[in-house]
């Protein structure tokens, strides 16, 4: 059964009671942060609270694993918009322990596509068009590795400003404790091995 009727009923009451007033802000991030993080349900409320962020403090960009799979995809575009159009002056990449993208296997995902009726010809057509399913569906060996890959892609992006620092963290999804992977990556760009 769809959740939509319940959502709409609650929303009507939310608006009528003006509960939205507690969340009023504008589109510019108050703390001038852009945060690329995972879509994991455990982080929805925990992550902002663990970072002492309130509604309006930061721009959150979420996807599976906080992974940038391509330099000109929608997540990277969102980071660039946050910096150039909305005033973000720092970028945080925050992965988490126990991420479902750890050791994600493209073959098993392709199997699930088939189980749900996706025609194998569709996958073949995409592959023939130059879209590698291995790359598109890739995970990472560890959350730290995933964070560093994303940090590197941001820092090395030809359109990303050199004066905006990019930091990397891994959060514990139960406690909210942050592990610093890299702080202000610019200092370490030359010394870290490229993958």
Describe this entry's structure for a reader.
It is a single chain. The protein has helices at 4-16, 43-50, 74-84, 106-115, 120-128, 133-136, 143-156, and strands at residues 33-38, 58-63, 90-96, 166-171, 178-182. By secondary structure, the protein is of the alpha/beta class. It folds into two domains: 32-103 and 141-184, Beta-carbonic Anhydrase, Chain A, CATH 3.40.1050.10; 105-138, no CATH class. The chain has a five-stranded mixed sheet, sandwiched between helices. A hairpin with a 6-residue loop joins strand 4 (166-171) and strand 5 (178-182). The longest helix has 14 residues, at 143-156. The termini are far apart.
- Poorly predicted ranges: 188-192
The number of helices is 7
Radius of gyration: 19 Å
The CATH architecture of the largest domain can be named as: 3-Layer(aba) Sandwich
Gist of the model:
With 195 residues, this protein is an alpha/beta fold.
Short descriptors:
single chain; 195 residues; alpha/beta; Beta-carbonic Anhydrase, Chain A; five-stranded mixed β-sheet; 7 helices; 5 strands; 35% helix
